[in-house]
Design a protein that fits this description.
It is a single chain. The chain has about 150 residues and is of the alpha+beta class. The protein has one domain: Cytidine Deaminase, domain 2 (3-Layer(aba) Sandwich). The protein has four helices and six strands. Strands 1, 2, 3, 4, 5 and 6 form a six-stranded mixed β-sheet that branches. β1 and β2 form a beta hairpin. The longest helix has 14 residues. The mean pLDDT is about 95.
């Protein structure tokens, strides 16, 4: 697997993730999350969390973006992802502390990484800016479950 390029400029990706978070449907948790996925050709695809009254049916921002890419036939082109989030206060999302993909999203990102035979750079920040964390997906999800575990 090709190593993740954590030297990518995360600023445009984080800006796209922040813009996407404004479209989050989060009436229950009141926690807006946006994700922006960078592809090999420079295109950026975004997603926002989508909650459901039946909580288990809710979708994380990263999963929304990756599912969209699957529909476009572009899963193998994922290079990096940026994730931001914050709590809604009076209708405005606030928060500067970095958030990271949940375990389910790490596994979903791992599927795309495997298809592209590359590790994915993961940039994490708060919805209002603040610190930026740079990770490799393989560091966030060591010993990931994948096709080899199914004997494929």
């Amino acid at each position: 697997m090709t190593p993740a390029d954590t030297n990518i400029d995360p600023a445009p990706l984080l800006a796209a993730a922040r813009a996407a978070a404004r479209h989050a449907h989060a009436p229950y948790s009141r926690f807006s999350v946006g994700a922006a996925v960078l592809l090999t050709d420079g295109q950026v695809v975004t997603g926002a969390n989508f909650e459901n009254a039946s909580y288990g049916l809710s979708l994380c921002a990263e999963t929304v973006a990756i599912a969209h890419l699957s529909g476009l036939g572009r899963l193998r082109d994922v290079v990096a992802v940026a994730v931001v989030g914050g709590t809604q206060i009076d209708g405005v999302a606030r928060g500067a502390d970095p958030i990271r993909p949940c375990g389910r999203c790490r596994q979903v990102l791992n599927e795309a990484a495997g298809m592209g035979h590359r590790d994915i750079a993961v940039f994490c920040s708060g919805i209002e800016g603040g610190a930026i964390e740079r990770h490799r997906l393989s560091d966030l999800l060591p010993h990931a479950f994948g096709p080899a575990d199914l004997g494929l």
